[in-house]
Amino acid sequence: MRALASRLLQFVLTVWAATVAVFALMQILPGNAAQVAAGMSATAEDVARIEQEFGLDRPLIVQYGDWVTGMLQGDFGTSYVTDAPITPLVLNSIQVTLILVVSAMVLALLIAVPLGTLAALLRGRSLGAVLSGLSQVGVAVPNFLAAILLVMVFSLGLGWFPSSGWQAPIFGIGGFLSHLILPVFSLALVQGAILTRYVRSAVLEIMREDYLRTARAKGRTSASALAVHGLRNAAIPVVTVAGVQLATLLIGAVVIEQVFVLPGMGSELVRAVENRDLLAVQAIVMVLVFLVLALNLIIDLLYTLLDPRVRNAA
């Protein structure tokens, strides 16, 4: 219980430090948000009026306090450029990104766990070498290249799936899945290849342990001994790496959303940067940082559950 409280406190302090860093970064960027909102032909009086309207003429500590207080209440403020609330934009885009990233990670694990385990069990055989070689090739392929190849084959070539766009599930599950499949596979194939390498290494390490050799000496096959005694221990490093890769997927989703024209966090971030909508940029970056920190917290908790040594030490 003490370890859980310590991790939660560390998480809260890290999130607070992230808010300070993100807010400070936005302040040191060149340009004047009020000038952008007023337009290049605006007079000094127009700029001053907009600064007063949005509270940009107040002390930075007051602006920071209002921003953090608003976020705690679910209010990310109003865009300087569009004069529209930012919260609906964030909520709509985060749904798309989370669906994309979580689906891709689930598919990547479904690919990596059996293939990595099989590659370890067949080490030294031709099929094991083929699986290892394919995973190495997959690691070398960038997400955007995988996306382009999938579009060329399955969209432009075979016409099975749309090449871009998004359809929410409430408008039809068929259309939703057809628009989701190619983006998810674009992310999952590369991440699956990376995780396959880690699963193979973890399984090979576990197979060298004395307790598995004892199980095999008692008559169990390598696969049976691994399934009964080894997979849980092999999952410990894999879970840690999967957490890191899940954070990487959030970053990779920015590119994939651009390729497939998906209205996710990455697309909204790029659009906000192009429009110099600094408050929207600030909100989206903060949400992405929060998601990465929350993922790290979840992985720490899963690690404690999987490894009794960590739990007992706590």
UniProtKB/TrEMBL annotation:
InterPro entries: BPD_transp_1_N, MetI-like, MetI-like_sf. Keywords: Cell membrane, Membrane, Transmembrane, Transmembrane helix, Transport. GO terms for molecular function: dipeptide transmembrane transporter activity. One of its GO terms (cellular component) is plasma membrane. It comes from the Bacteria. Its main location: membrane. The keyword Metal-binding does not apply. It is a multi-pass membrane protein. The chain crosses the membrane at residues 98-122, 134-158, 170-190, 234-260, 280-306. The keyword Transport applies. It is found in: Cell membrane. Residues 94-299 form the ABC transmembrane type-1 domain. Belongs to the binding-protein-dependent transport system permease family. This is Peptide/nickel transport system permease protein.
